[in-house]
Amino acid sequence: MANILVCDDDREIVEAIDIYLRExxxxxxxxxxxxxAVELLxxxxxxxxxxxxxxxxxxxxxxxxxxxxxxxxxxxxxxxKSEDTDKILGLNTGADxxxxxxxxxxxxxxxxxxxxxxxxxxGSLGHENTQTYRTGGLVxxxxxxxxxxxxxxxxxTPIEYNILLLLVKNQGRVFSxxxxxxxxxxxxxxxxxxxxxxxxxxxxxKIEINPRDPRYLKVVWxxxxxxxxxxx
Length: 232
Prior knowledge:
There is one protein chain. This protein has helices spanning 11-23, 34-43, 60-67, 84-92, 105-121, 158-169, 177-185, 193-207, and strands at residues 3-7, 27-31, 48-52, 75-79, 97-100, 132-135, 138-141, 146-149, 152-154, 217-220, 224-227. By secondary structure, the protein is an alpha/beta fold. The protein has a five-stranded parallel β-sheet, sandwiched between helices. The chain is globular, with a radius of gyration of 18 Å.
C-alpha cells in the first residue's frame, strides 16, 4: 500500500485526513510546514503528497518547487482559496491536482486514489507490458515509462506523461480540452480549461526546442490539441 505524506500547519486537518486515509489502508506520514515535508521526503519513500498552500517557514508553493527538482510524485494542493488564479499557481509550480478548502474528505480520498492510479501506471509503484510509440524524434517507451526527444531524456510528471501518451498513441487526432480532462482525470470536465492548458504548456516546455513554435504538440484553434504525426 502507498505511503502518503500530509502537510498542513493546521494539526486538526492533518489528523482528520490521517483518519480517512488510514481507513483506506494507506500509511500516513505527517508534516506541519514545507521544510518538514521536504526533509521527510528525503528520508522516506513517499508515493503521494497532500500539501496546504499557506504555511509558516516554507509555504506549499515554495515546497512544491523544491520537491519538483528531484521528484515526480503526485502532489495534491490544499487551498482555502477557490479563485482560478490560485489553482493555476499551484499547477504552475508542478502540482498535479488541487482541492479547495473546506473539502469533503471522501472527495479528497477519491482524488488520492485517482492520482495514485496514474502514478502506478507510470511505473513508480507498478509495471505494465506495453509498447514504444514514436513520432519524429519523440519516443515514448510505455514499458519503462521513459520519454526522450532526439535521444535526450525528458522528465515528466505522471499527469504530463499520461496526457502526452494519450496524444502520441492517437497521432493526428485532435482532442478537445474536455476530452483530455475526462480521459486523464476520469471525471466530468467542469472548469477543465485552465487545468489542461497549464499541463499542456509544461509538456511543450519539456519536449519542444521552441515551445512557441512547437514541432510536436500542436493547438488546433477552437478545437483542441494533437500530436503531429511525423516520419520516423
